[in-house]
Amino acid sequence: MSRMDEIKAKAIAKDPERKKTYEEESKRLKTAVMIVELREKHGLTQQVLADKAGVPKSTIVRIENAQVNTTVDMLSRIAQAVGKELEMSIL
Predict the structure, then answer these.
(1) Considering the domain boundaries, does residue 60 fall inside one?
(2) For residues 59 and 66, is the Cβ–Cβ distance under 8 A?
(3) pLDDT band (50, 70, 90) for residue 87
(4) Per the domain annotation, does 81 fall within a domain?
(5) DSSP conformation letters of 27-57
(6) pTM: predicted TM-score of the whole model, two decimal places
(7) Which whole number is the average pLDDT over 51-80?
(8) How many helices (H) and strands (E) does the chain have?
(9) How far is residue 38's CA from residue 32's CA, in Å, rounded to a whole number?
(10) Cβ atoms within 10 Å of 67's Cβ, excluding its own
(11) Cβ(27)–Cβ(70) below 8 Å
(12) In this structure, what CATH number is given to the domain that contains residue 50?
């Protein structure tokens, strides 16, 4: 376990609300990174991705800045915008 993992574990162990908040923020951040990497891999600007997905650029900006919980529908639209299909799994 890394030092960061130890600190995180201590920080959330005693506070269920903090753990919930951490998990929610972590999901948003992972989604943001995934979308930025997908967009950049396809050489698209935020505006072009937004146009292809049929959403305002501000939507892409908020997703990439981890400011919103992204819906499955939105992830699917973004995937389709770059010629991909959204695949999900429950772990």
Answers:
(1) yes
(2) no
(3) very high
(4) yes
(5) HHHHHHHHHHHHHHHTT--HHHHHHHHTS-H
(6) 0.82
(7) 97
(8) 5, 0
(9) 10
(10) 11
(11) no
(12) 1.10.260.40
C-alpha distances in angstroms, 25 versus 1, 18, 61, 65? 21, 10, 16, 11
* 44 falls within a domain: yes
Inter-residue long-range contacts of 68-72, CB under 8 Å, 24+ positions, other chains counted: 68/28, 69/24, 69/27, 69/28, 70/28, 70/31, 70/35
Q: Is residue 90 part of a domain?
A: yes
Q: Cβ neighbours of residue 30 under 8 Å, at least 6 residues apart?
A: none
pLDDT of residue 15: 84
Domain span at 55: 25-91
pLDDT on residue 14: 81
| Span 32-51, average pLDDT | 98
Please count the structural domains in the chain.
1
